[in-house]
């Protein structure tokens, strides 16, 4: 098979992307995750919005939502050829910036020869300098959507949760960020209790007025099976 590495580029990340092109699968995708944690990427800048004081990344609007094109090296960026300027930064820093803009997907090297798309769960994990778990399915975002709240929880919301749990039979409350639902921020409050169901209504009545960014609030039982990348707000 022909070499899929862009000419003139020998970066470890580009080699990992080329491996995905040759043999798509869990192992090659996991290698991309690991390389991204230490990679430097190029992000195209919006020529209409960027100024000398502020660089604004060029975000594409797709039927699936907002999508950020990123590049492993100068050559694939040149092949893409849409705008002349770019921002160069560490991948986790760019992913943090993407989260702040409400990005649903990041696409690496959209001009090819290999195009790798990352969903919002993958973006959040890499933004926090963690390699996402590979689940072997394109619907992994829907099946494992819990990560750390980003942006962080406002103090008013955390205080409301702590006060709501006073005198309740709950020993711990951890808040996770899930993938957006119809454009709304989605927070999952996980409660550790023998039976958390009876207290959910009372807790929700206290929390709903303080929900940040008009977030959708859902509730679940906190068990050892849930990931540990949430924010523990309450522990009795």
Give a quick rundown of the structure.
By secondary structure, the chain is α+β, with helices and mostly antiparallel strands.
Number of helices: 8
Note the overall shape.
elongated
Approximate strand percentage: 15-25%
Category from helices, strands and their pairing: alpha+beta
- How would a crystallographer describe the biggest sheet? 4 strands, mixed
In what order do the strands lie side by side in the largest sheet?
Answer: 2-3-5-6
> In CATH, what is the class of the largest domain?
Alpha Beta
Share of residues in helices: 25-40%
CATH superfamily of the largest domain: Uncharacterised protein PF11572, DUF3234
Number of strands: 10
Secondary-structure element string? HHEEEHEHEEHHHEEHEE
What CATH architecture of the largest domain do you see? 3-Layer(aba) Sandwich
Chain-averaged pLDDT:
82
Distance between the termini: 59 Å
- Provide the domain count: 2
